[in-house]
Amino acid sequence: MTKINIKSIVKKVLIGLLVALVIIQFFHPAKNMNTTVSEKDITRMYIVPDSVEQILKKACYDCHSNNTRYPWYFNIQPVAWWMDDHIGEAKKELNFSEFGNRPLVKQAKKLKKAANEVKEGGMPLDSYTWIHKDAVLTESEKNILIDWANGLSQQITAKAPEVK
After folding, report:
1. How far lies 28's CA from each of 71, 78, 83, 131, in Å?
2. Please, how many CA atoms are within 13 Å of residue 58, restricted to the half-sphere of its CB?
């Protein structure tokens, strides 16, 4: 009967994990960065006051647009893969850069949902604001964003009666 050497097994597993961690550092997802503003960007389709645009840029655009500001830790795997997946999911839900590609009905609903998420405290995500302290919204900023989103949703609804 052979005696199992636990120390040897643990050492081999740790070395294997370290080698795998080093190897995956060479594989990064493409960055979500676009140098131009799309014709379908919400700022080109609708009036977005400067105060609202500043709030969107600091608290929303990293995940909900085609132009993410990447922190240093994006260069570390598997964090980059996790962030890439998170950004992809967020853009599927609401992408301000491609907002005009959605039918008016969906635009109005997305704005109402976004306003509700901010009101309920669901956005921006806690996991985002833990590291991005500048993205924490004041009550005043929340109210500005909520009022704008609800107002724009009403304007869109007025344009397209089928939204109701």
Report:
1. 14, 9, 11, 21
2. 16
Q: Among residues 44, 82, 49, which one has the least CA distance to residue 63?
A: 82
Residue 18 reports pLDDT greater than 70: yes
Name the phi and psi angles at 105, rounded to 5. -55, -45
Over residues 129-148, mean pLDDT: 91
∠ Cα 72 73 77 (to 5°): 135
pLDDT at 99 over 90: yes
Side-chain-side CA neighbours of residue 138 (13 Å): 5
Kindly report, residue by residue over 31-49, the tens digit of the pLDDT: 767 777 788 999 999 999 9
What does the alpha-carbon distance between residue 18 and residue 137 come to, in Å, rounded to a whole number?
Answer: 39
- From residue 119, how far is each of 4, 18, 55, 127, 157 by CA, in Å? 58, 44, 14, 17, 21
Tokens of 93: 């839900």
Here the tokens at position 106 are: 């969906």
Mean per-residue pLDDT for 7-33? 81
Q: Which ranges in 1-103 belong to alpha helices (H)?
A: 6-24, 42-45, 50-59, 61-64, 79-93
Helices (runs of H) and strands (runs of E) counted in the chain: 8, 0
